[in-house]
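User: Teach me something about this protein's shape.
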Amino acid sequence: MHRPLFFALVLAVLVAIFGGWLNAGTALLSGIFIALTLGHPWVAHARRYSALVLKAAIVLMGFGMSISSVAQTASATFWITAATLVAALVFGYCLMRLLQLDSTTSLLLSSGTAICGGSAIAAVSQVIKPPAEKTAFAVTVVFLLNIVALYIFPVIGQWLALTQYQFGVWAALAIHDTSSVVGAAAQFGDQALDVASTAKLARALWIIPLTVALSMFWQTSKLRISIPLFIILFLLAAIARSLIQAPELFDGLALLSRYLLNIALFMMGLGMTRSTLRDLSLKPLLFGILLWLLLAALSLVLVLYAL
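Assistant: First, the predicted structure itself:
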């Protein structure tokens, strides 16, 4: 690794992000390019801090929304979210039988596809206690599909002439991780970003009943359930926006969230490694792709005809 060149490129990308010259997609691509061409020893740190920066960005997004709009979006998408969650688990079971994939890998990938990507996989792993390599592989598959989604969803949305609201809901339902949901929605438009953020956070809460159900099925003796702190802070930020008359301050914080989002995606790209691509196994990868395509198609139909 050429450290001076690495740090120079990182600094250049950060300046470009704050200068408004890079959007979510190009920020992620810049991180991937630097990671795969130069390499660096801070992969674990890039992945960890990208998650922390993303959570901070989501909290600040709350200052750009009123609590009434958040509640309205969450309630309007409740049943369609529940339907896609059940469908993902059913599709996953059918694909498991069709591809003759082991049940543990299937459940991890199905949970990640149905709810919130890597976060759901990590939560389910705490319940069913799979081998570490299966958890790592499931997270890798989701990570790669998130990168694809960040680029193709805005293109498909524009091709289908989706409204800002339709695209925001579709992205929240069909893309795995929150990072790629908000990244894709940010490229589509400001209203899409607000809708996608709220609907995605509401979708993420479904990990609670899923882990409870799995713990009962697996007869787990100890189960710790908690609502992620950043979701609570997001709601408090929206409440503050509704109650306190400080629009310029809140608009500034909401704008800062866009920069932090791009930085989080850039750091996520820095978390890519060549070994990640080399270690892929065909059958679980095919399972993840097929399940994702089925869920994306179903959720698009529901968005177009059921909302």
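Now, about its shape. Residues 74 and 199 are 6 Å apart (CA to CA). The mean pLDDT is 87. If you'd like, I can walk through any region in more detail.
User: That's plenty for now, thanks!
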